[in-house]
UniProtKB/TrEMBL annotation:
Keywords: Membrane, Transmembrane, Transmembrane helix. It holds the Pfam family MARVEL. The keyword Transmembrane applies. Residues 20-167 form the MARVEL domain. It is a multi-pass membrane protein. This is Synaptogyrin 3. Belongs to the synaptogyrin family. It is found in: Membrane. The chain crosses the membrane at residues 26-44, 70-92, 104-128, 148-166. One of its GO terms (cellular component) is synaptic vesicle membrane. Its main location: membrane.
């Protein structure tokens, strides 16, 4: 790649959709996007169950609403960030300034590193709260959703670390 900077071809080059879709960075973004949906989706859908003593909803993770909110916020933030970074990757060839390309790469690297750490914190927090949850009808009802959110938050650590190391 003569004249290339920050892992891209010459500025203004046409984007080939097939080669773009096959790039490891693109595949990692799509996988991270799916994992984010697999974390916040089950929490939103089944993460809140009726309490034993009334019709009030409570978080399945030990009744800690902060755990549900953190999981949803983390997953939704990752979902939106993956979409934004996919668009940035798609437009990266059209960025002509080396300084702007450098900023885009550093933004991607920094955000991926921070989000990897947040996924680790989220995994530990959700796992800890699930471990402290007392067995009962509510945990039986929403247990699969809670375990899915925990599992995919772990997988998200791996995908975001890979995304930050891939640049």
């Amino acid at each position: 790649m003569e004249g290339a900077s920050f892992g891209a071809g010459l500025a203004g080059a046409a984007v080939d959709p097939v080669s773009f879709a096959k790039r490891p960075q693109t595949l990692l973004r799509v996988v991270s996007w799916v994992f984010a949906i697999a974390v916040f989706g089950p929490i939103v859908n089944e993460g809140y169950v009726n309490s034993d003593d009334g019709p009030e909803l409570r978080c399945v993770f030990n009744g800690n609403a902060g755990a549900c909110r953190f999981g949803v916020t983390l997953g939704l933030g990752a979902f939106l960030a993956c979409a934004a970074f996919l668009l940035l990757d798609l437009r990266f060839q059209q960025i002509s300034s080396v300084r702007d390309r450098r900023r885009a790469v550093l933004l991607d690297l920094g955000f991926s590193g921070v989000w990897s750490f947040l996924w680790f914190v989220g995994f530990c927090f959700l796992t800890n709260q699930w471990q402290r949850t007392a067995p009962g009808p509510a945990t039986t009802q929403a247990g699969d959703a809670a375990r899915a959110a925990i599992a995919f938050s772990f997988f998200s650590i791996l995908s975001w670390v890979s995304a930050s190391c891939g640049r």
